[in-house]
UniProtKB/TrEMBL annotation:
The gene is radA. It comes from the Bacteria. Plays a role in repairing double-strand DNA breaks, probably involving stabilizing or processing branched DNA or blocked replication forks. DNA-dependent ATPase involved in processing of recombination intermediates, plays a role in repairing DNA breaks. Stimulates the branch migration of RecA-mediated strand transfer reactions, allowing the 3' invading strand to extend heteroduplex DNA faster. Binds ssDNA in the presence of ADP but not other nucleotides, has ATPase activity that is stimulated by ssDNA and various branched DNA structures, but inhibited by SSB. Does not have RecA's homology-searching function. ATP binds at residues 94-101. Residues 65-221 form the RecA family profile domain. GO terms for biological process: recombinational repair. One of its GO terms (cellular component) is cytosol. Belongs to the RecA family. RadA subfamily. One of its GO terms (molecular function) is ATP-dependent DNA damage sensor activity. It comes from Nesterenkonia cremea. This is DNA repair protein RadA.
Length: 468
């Protein structure tokens, strides 16, 4: 009997969505003209007659093979949960020029120094080996045990993995920079396409698991900030990290979006300078100005980046305007939320001057604050600037402000107060907590408020006790 012919398979070249018939527009990514025929649907795979590695009882599995290896880069180890795991595949994504290659070159050098028994392989598809060495000399990453190979063919790259350190069992760490620049001659499509990215990633994952080798893949991002390529790419790997930073600022943040071996609610801070990236164990000083005198329009808040409290300063300037529509300018904050807070101040706090005044609100040091816990500090900074009354010294405030003018509780209250106390702040205004605050840090005077007008009366009309 003749075998029934399978139905044609179509796939979107942008996102990898598949269907059995052609459509003009991909319903997944909404792109036009990207659905192409990809051959025939094959038959179901049958069970193998023999197993290479039969299943083991969970008590017989050696968990030490998946133990963490520290990289000697503290902030990276913090985000990963303790270090690199042998056999893990990590996807590192970020905008161009943010410092991904610099960070990974430092990681490669550090791992090669810490564990000289096995080499480290750095595969570059974007630069030549000489260019990578030039950067390594600048940041002090020249070390024995670090091997460079400039390849763009997947077959050649896999050959480098097999040959490098073959006598020691292969490389302990392989870095592929970047996954979008490699291609395989065994599949159709140009480098960076959905089919090529899937093949490159699957081949590197297979090699990593077989050789128990940690693999880091560098990924590009789209203009929307998402990782380029099919969404399944993030499902295939073990860890997905986002490297963020403003090109006009030295601060760089590393977040774990997905982590099979550790937490995803932590953030690593780095300082980008001429010598590379330096771990910042206490970056709070970058986000606070050096002013010693009390100036109207400034307020300190404690924001949480994952589980990590960071001190940030909000500055506001309110000036008279002759225009029919006064200007509103925001930097480092969510612009629609700042506009909402200005309206709340105008209606609930009776600050009618804001209607015909220009308002400029910004953060210090280029930090971006998106969480609602900064609402109270923004409102206090704007009110202080509008009334030309400075806030008390060594004072912090955090809380979410609603449209009715109420101040709502925020998570991590105790962690924020402890960070404020550690940095020498003595006064704080926080949301009213129905459960009570039993463990206020020693040396701090904390006042609870339930509404924005109540907070303004406390701070700008006497407020907390002045400095002694």
């Amino acid at each position: 009997m003749a075998k029934k012919k399978g139905a044609p398979s179509f796939e979107c070249t942008e996102c990898g969505w598949q269907t059995v018939k052609w459509v003009g527009r991909c319903p997944e990514c909404q792109a036009w003209g990207t659905v192409e025929e990809k051959g025939q649907v094959t038959a179901r795979t049958t069970a193998a007659s023999s197993l290479a590695q039969p299943a083991k009882a969970i008590h017989d599995v050696d968990s030490s093979l998946a133990s963490f290896r520290a990289t000697s880069i503290g902030e990276l180890d913090r985000v990963l949960g303790g270090g690199l795991v042998p056999g893990a595949v990590i996807l590192m994504a970020g905008e161009p020029g943010v410092g991904k290659s610099t960070l990974l070159l430092q990681v490669a050098s550090s791992v090669a120094k810490a564990h000289p028994e096995q080499p480290v392989l750095y595969l570059t598809g974007e630069e030549s080996a000489a260019q990578v060495k030039k950067r390594a000399e600048r940041i002090g990453a020249i070390t024995d045990g670090l091997y460079l190979a400039a390849e763009s063919d997947l077959g050649q790259a896999l050959g480098q993995v097999e040959e490098t350190g073959a006598e020691a069992g292969g490389p302990q760490l392989t870095i592929m920079d970047s996954v979008q620049t490699f291609s395989s001659a065994a599949v159709d499509g140009a480098a960076g396409g959905v089919t090529q990215i899937r093949e490159v990633t699957a081949s590197m994952i297979e090699a990593a698991k077989r050789k128990n080798m940690t693999t880091i893949l560098v990924g590009h991002v789209t203009k929307d900030g998402n990782i380029a390529g099919p969404r399944m790419l993030e499902h295939l790997v073990d860890v997905v990290c986002q490297f963020e930073g403003d090109r006009h600022s030295r601060l760089r943040l590393l977040r774990a979006v997905k982590n099979r071996y550790g937490p995803t609610d932590d953030v690593g801070c780095f300082d980008l300078n001429e010598d590379g990236l330096t771990s910042l164990a206490d970056p709070s000083g970058l986000f606070v100005s050096a002013l010693t005198d009390r100036v109207p329009g400034t307020c300190i808040t404690i924001t949480l980046e994952g589980r990590r409290p960071l001190t940030a300063e909000v500055q506001a300037l309110v000036a008279e305007s002759q225009a029919s529509q006064p200007r509103r300018a925001v930097s480092g904050l969510d612009s629609p939320r700042v506009s909402m807070l200005l309206a709340v101040l105008q209606r609930r706090a009776r600050l009618a001057t804001l209607m015909k005044s220009e308002a400029y609100v910004a953060t210090v040091g280029g930090v971006k604050i998106t969480e609602p816990a900064a609402d109270l500090s923004i409102a206090l900074a704007v009110a202080s600037a509008a009334l030309e009354k400075p806030l008390p010294n060594r004072f912090v405030a955090f809380g979410e402000v609603g449209l009715a003018g109420e101040v709502r509780p925020v998570p991590g209250l105790q962690r924020r107060l402890q960070e404020a106390q550690r940095l020498g702040f003595t006064h704080a205004i926080i949301p009213r907590n129905p459960d009570g605050n039993d463990s206020i840090p020693e040396g701090m005077r904390v006042r609870e408020v339930g509404s924005l007008p109540e907070a303004l009366n406390l701070v700008l009309d006497g407020g907390p006790p002045k400095e002694e």
